[in-house]
# Entry
Amino acid sequence: MSKAEDRVLVAGAGPVGLVAAVALREEGIPVTVLEASADLAVDLRASTFHPPTLDFLSRLGLADGLIERGIKCPYWQFRDRKEGEVATFDLSLLAEDTDHPYRLQAEQWKLTEAARARLDADPGADLLTEVTVVSASQWADHVEAVIRRTDGSEERLRGRFLIGADGARSAVRKSVGAEFPGLTIPEIFLSLSTPFRYDEAIPDLADIAYISDPEEWLVLLRTPTLWRVLLPTDPSLSDEAVLDPEIVERRLQGVLPTGAPYEVAHKTAYRVHERVADRYVHGRIFLAGDAAHLNNPLGGMGMNGGIHDAVNLAEKLSAVWRGADLSLMDRYERQRRKVALETVQAQALRNRAILNERDPAKRRAHHDELRATAADPARHRAYVLRSSMIQSLRDLESVA
Ligand SMILES: Cc1cc2nc3c(=O)[nH]c(=O)nc-3n(C[C@H](O)[C@H](O)[C@H](O)COP(=O)(O)OP(=O)(O)OC[C@H]3O[C@@H](n4cnc5c(N)ncnc54)[C@H](O)[C@@H]3O)c2cc1C
# Structure
């Protein structure tokens, strides 16, 4: 392998690929990031950063600018659509557990923009856009990615290792033959953003609110400039029907009638999957982020879990780069796959079940349980340790 080829290839310049690349550069390891799009995505996707994610980003020098451009939310809430507040959870109870005892509401593109600026200024990093990874293969001491440029030409790129952070439809995952078992949620998630100030219209509303209802649950999330409304939608409808302006207006008036039309700044409808790859580590090729696991956004754990993958993977890969045995990477898989299955997926499914519950007795029991948890300081702290994903990182330490 030539010196120019002695590097880590990263497929995908989403939050996970870029954080992995910055973390590897912190260890002095050369990286080449391969991104299919002409530019990085700037649409509204994930918008919540949990405390330990901010701790990791802070160590990589990526948190300050993000925090300046976001909203610090120490409280989040569980509500009933008809009865109002059920329980409010307080992340400031985690002041001794994290340097960032709050959820930061900031759009994910603000992170990718900052990470890209870091890599662009670094001679040890390349970020190549309009380069699609078509397939990946490996030999005893190197990997090869077949890449396709926009003119249709193909080329082989070599590296010492390859990280597949190329999102939900990952070509790298398909290339290594990983299974991606799980299910598709029988709902379309409709995400609408509006400058309407729900916080001024709904008394005691926290900046992050999960609102249960037997007919139609919803989530209200504040971002620096807009409120996002997330609503479940009939999966048999076409995207055009779901996003039809009249229907969107009717649904927003259903959330809170205002008597005046809502201004809608963004609208997206997407299908949600709950899937975890059977293997994350395939010799010299590793999967991370959405390429490795997908879950519903209730709890905001998808991107956060992916960033935790990137940090864990980069730490172990740096040790392997400096001479540790490649089998160290298996611990990455054991640790992060366990979190994806037992924490992220389990919690996201539970959150959806609670929001969706139709049986009045079960709904009352869930709500009573949440109220009792919030009222008891020890249970409240344990709950926010879990929901903020700090507990999942602590539990990893005992995974051999
Ligand atoms: C429309 C939408 C809305 C979302 N909304 C929410 C939300 O409200 N809340 C939430 O928590 N999460 C949400 N998510 C999920 C969240 O955005 C992801 O969990 C997060 O982006 C995962 O980061 P990633 O880097 O693993 O993958 P991605 O962000 O998907 O990045 C993958 C990158 O790889 C590139 N790529 C793909 N294939 C190739 C290839 N073959 N070669 C080279 N490059 C390739 C893509 O262009 C992309 O830049 C949403 C996702 C989408 C798509």
In short: Residues 328-356 form the longest helix (29 residues). DSSP finds 13 helices and 20 strands in the chain.
